[in-house]
């Protein structure tokens, strides 16, 4: 080297030019994958064992799939009503065409929808700022399967299996569109929005300059996808409406300028396409699906306010979230009801506080960096050391935090609206065990609902925390691994034990408990620790209660499989007797028709032998035209007792053929 050439040149340490990125374990991702596979495998095993039990409503959807597969009919609505779209029938139709009608074939698409729900929930949890351990927790909770949860997820009876994956997809698209809306803009444009106004400090003023946002900056395809999925969900079942409205409100607040241009047109086009079956049928026949839903919700059969509130607020959350045994809730399983309401409130407060947080000051050189970092937020970024979305990278990432908090708040508000509407309905008071299926959509809000528990456990040091990437020039030992336990998000250690963990991964953010920040008092550390222990206890209680309920569902397998086998014997017996037309109860009729591939057609009767509700009126016409039509009733049922009175000789006399669990009554000829 020539002498003097190094004069005035300061040699940098090698670490400054080659930042170290600590190796991060893939254990939580691997465990989440195993938990998801276990959840799917558990449900597949139950389907092979005929669990959950089949019913006539599911068979009605199966008949729609059979008609679609044959090209005979393309129904818009569940047969016999003007609401509840037949998406499940269209999904199952190709399988029915290939393998023939069976309950297993009908449920394979719903199993695939459940697997999609798990995958999207993991992704949404990560996009909302959760680390891999928190996403593992969410997947583990959703992998459990009590009796009520299994019925909601697997029975192809209309609506419920599609709502959860669809709702999570809309939430994921919303956070992507909102967090990605600031690409290519200056910092002034980034903070010029509803979140910025919420975050203004007392006495602050709005940014003076506003830069226009280019329509379609996030990609018109994502806008169209949001509308398409939302439209399909509204056609399938209006129960998802609160989530669509809440997430749509976030889009309007964040991206309203683009909604008046091409982006809005793409969203509207997707929405119209997804809801096209419902809209076209309403225009053609003058039907109102929303009015039909309200009429069918039990509004004509009153329940007392005490019954409604007990069924809606006490029984509803434990049943919907999978914490009850098959067919009933034990007293000890009801602990989740008040816990759910408390978590709902705490999580909403945490999200609101994030929205109110002021944007940190930036240096004059920051706007350019802000635009680059914000651009990453819209493209599902992954850090080099973790492949995880950044929950904060300094001031530039604040819009992404705001967007995530807004989506969490929207999910929680929608969950509260669904719960309130259910608690006010007569269905909650009259039949809470069955009508709790209306609360199945609460699972969409799980990544937001458990946020306070995760935050409290993290602050108390009771939860694994990710290592912070090494920063150039940073002294050794000051990374995330060297942080003290008991970090707090913000400067209020006494009031945020179960609140928001905000900016935990932001370089340069001063964490309470860090060596360079304010150290909490001994009393504050005790409160933080107590809150963390409480949070871990609640999480353990959730997993334990859910596991007990899941074991209860497994315990029903032998009886349910035996009943399904008896039903198959009944169908075979009808074929052996060459019977093509029968009369039976509602919960028997369409099940026979679907299992036989419509070789048997059935007219519904009540226990007094009077005509009942036929979802396919053509079946009754065919049965009435056959003088040799038989009767079918479960052994020991009121209908069987009534028909037993007609046994014997005479013009109206019947003779009986017994099969396991059933009685077939034949007219005397």
UniProtKB/TrEMBL annotation:
Signal peptide: none annotated. The keyword Metal-binding does not apply. The chain crosses the membrane at residues 27-49, 95-121, 133-150, 223-252, 259-280, 335-355, 405-424, 436-454. Keywords: Membrane, Transmembrane, Transmembrane helix. Residues 1-22, 467-516 are annotated as: Disordered. This is 4-amino-4-deoxy-L-arabinose transferase. It comes from Micromonospora chaiyaphumensis.
